[in-house]
Amino acid sequence: MQAARLSGSDRKFLLKVAREAIRSQLAGEALNLPSPPSSPALHEHRGAFVTLHEHGQLRGCIGNFVGNRPLYETVADMAISAAFHDPRFPPLEPREFGEIDLEISALTPLEPIEDPDLVVVGTHGIYLINGPYRGVLLPQVATEYGWDRYTFLDQTCIKAGMEPGCWRNPATRILVFSADVFGEKSEGLV
Prior knowledge:
Elements: H1 8-27, H2 40-43, E1 48-54, E2 57-64, H3 71-84, E3 100-107, E4 111-113, E5 125-130, E6 133-137, H4 139-145, H5 149-159, E7 173-177, E8 179-183
Antiparallel strand pairs: 1-2, 1-3, 3-8, 4-7, 5-6, 5-7
């Protein structure tokens, strides 16, 4: 689960990319990303999630585990998806743009585990798969809610549309990942 650590300037650049992607979509303009610094971390093919909060409330969150493009391009795509295509929320409106705070989770590759006791709360995110059911919770969710390992696993089952405890079923695959999580507030940009 190795990936290059993002520097402070990498983080600020990715937040700028995410905000610019949303702004250009709201303005009906073609996306014209700023040129990335030469940082290797920004050019790695990594998955990412972008989360929007408005006045402290979730306003959208979309991500992709597969890093088939440079991280900065994935972040731009996920920012647009979170703002305009999260099925839980209506598309972001121009009047909301100045009210949203962005958070980015740059992911490490998924790693299957056989023993649920290997899930480390605060370090791992969980992705569960059982047939057509799939659910994911980012690493920061467990710490935000004060969950222990088993509550975290149960809540991921619920997110997948399965019963709590589904992770005990041998047919359920458990994959973990880590994330470099940062936002405009943590980077002092708001």
